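The records we work with from here on pair a chain with its fold. The integers have meaning only within a learned vocabulary of local backbone shapes. A complete example follows; check for yourself that the lines match position by position.

:::
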Amino acid sequence: MDLATSSRVPVWMPWPLPADWLVTGLRSVGDPQEAARGVVLACSGPGVVSRADLLVVAEEPGIGLGARFAGLDAADPGPEVTRLPADVRIHADDHVAVLWSVPGISDRAAYVGEAAGLWIWVVVWPVTEWMVVHDDLRLTDLRSRLAGPGPYPPELPFGDPTPLVTELPPLPR
């Protein structure tokens, strides 16, 4: 978990995890000699219809990590995303973050918003499990969790890595 103690951006994790869900991936982007400028944490578990994968990305604008998981050809969401009504309000630590659904994607549900001046992306596979992202979804920044005592278990539940994170798609151009 060195990444969670040295990242420039939050390492968002759903907390508490839904029942029977596991952490199944963690990746970062940026110069290896510097703190991460983008981080994705994956969780997997039973959904309503089938097994679901949930990816939460925090990144600086212009990085493109969240956009590539969302299936976009650009580094950042376009302004048209915020022209629609917000779809969901999640809790990122002690703050409410408004997320908009990213249109034009058929195999996954993708949402994007802003938290603390950084992009926050939430992507769910398959699209039929979109309801994993809801108004009561709470995210905690693992950087603060690992920095001191908190209401969290000493060990996070890890599962087999998801290929969604281990086979990172190329950055958009």
About this structure: The helical segments are 2-6, 65-70, 142-147, 163-166. Strands lie at 12-14, 22-29, 38-46, 51-59, 88-92, 95-101, 109-115, 118-125, 138-141. The longest strand covers residues 38-46. The chain has a mean pLDDT of 86.
